[in-house]
Structures are given as C-alpha cells and as structure tokens.
Amino acid sequence: MSGLLSTQIFWLAVTLVVFEAADTISRRSNRHPLAHPVLWATPVLIGLLLLTETRYDTYYSATYPLSFLLGPAVVGLAVPIWARRALIRRLALPILLALLAGAVTAIVSAVGIMWLFGAPADILASVAPRATTTPVAMDVATQLGGVPALAAVIVLFAGVIGAMTATPLFNLMKIRDYRARGFAVGVSSHGFGAARAFQVDQTAGAFASLGMALNAVATSTLLSLLALLF
Questions:
Q1: Chain center to CA of 159
Q2: pTM of the predicted protein model
Q3: Could you tell me which residues come within 8 angstroms of residue 148 by beta carbon, excluding any fewer than 6 positions away?
Q4: Which of 125, 140, 166, 170 could form a disulfide with 146, with the two C-beta atoms 3.0–4.6 Å apart?
C-alpha cells in the first residue's frame, strides 16, 4: 500500500476523481454557490493526505501535470478576449477606471481590515495582493516581505468566496450587464471568478478574463511602487 501511495498515477487519479465527484454535485445542484467544486474537493484531498500521511512534496510531484496545464489554460483565456477586442476598445476608459477602483479597493480593504485587528507587517504584505493570481501574489508578497505560502492560501480563499457569492450578489443588486458582472468578478476573484463567469455567460467570462489579467498587472505595479516608496 505504501508503494501505491507514493506513485504519481495514484494521486493524479485520486485528484481527478475527487474533483469530478465535487463538480458532479455542483452541476446537479444547478451550480449552487455552496456547492462550488473547489470548496468541497480541497478539504477531501487534504483529509486523504493527512489520513495516508503523504507528504505535500510527494503529492505536488504527482499532480504536477495539472499544475503545468494551468499555464496553457490561462493563456487560452485570451481567445474570448481577442474575439471581443472591438468592444473592449470602445469601453477602454470605463474599463481602466473600473480597474483602478477595483485594484485600489481590493488592496485598501484587505490591508485596512487586517491593520485594524493589529496584524503584523508580514501578514499585511501577504494579504495585500489577495485579488491577483497565485503566482503574482506569491512574488509580490515576497517582494513586500510577506509569506508567499500564506499569500497563496489567501488568494485561494478570495477566489473561492468570490466565485461563490458573485452571482447571487449581482442578482441582489440587480446588475444585469454581463460585461460589468464579468469584469468585477475577474478583478476581485481572478481565475476562480473567471471560471464561474464562463458558466453563467460567455461575455461575462471574456470580461472576467480581461479583469483578471489587467488586475494582476495593476495590483503588482501599485504594490511595487509602494514598496519602493516605503
């Protein structure tokens, strides 16, 4: 059994099976926010790793093909953006204003709340890039003197919570424009938000992808400038 647990194909298969089961539950619930597949698949996989006493580096090496495929998947998000390039050009000014507002709000709200609770500087640095993608957040957190691993966890939680709450929140606020809905969730919830937006509407997904990409640049630029100043 120990030999099986250390094989790459075993944990790769387990990850795919667990996620597919969670996604099936999500589909059968008509994509209910509380049935988000990542929300359920993650604790199940953590429990299995703890139960089998499997080291994270073993699991990571086994599931590296999935991590590698994230790169092409993110690049693939450029396709729907390119298909709507004319519309995006016409909305360039509102998009830039919304991006600036969203990036600043994400940083100030996260850091401000943690600062009010007396969080130390390294925690503030780790939470500041929480609305960007994981690689960007880890690099920025390192530059600011934060903890990269903590930044990655915070990004995960921000993405899952955003993907879970965005649609009911937009419906409650009676926001019907899928361009605005998609861009907002992309800026605030990066890849998780973009994936959820594509499930709702293709236009929302395209603008969510745009928001995710632009916010990664905007947030890293703003925080890098702050690091140079302070």
A1: 4
A2: 0.84
A3: 126, 138, 139, 141, 142
A4: 125
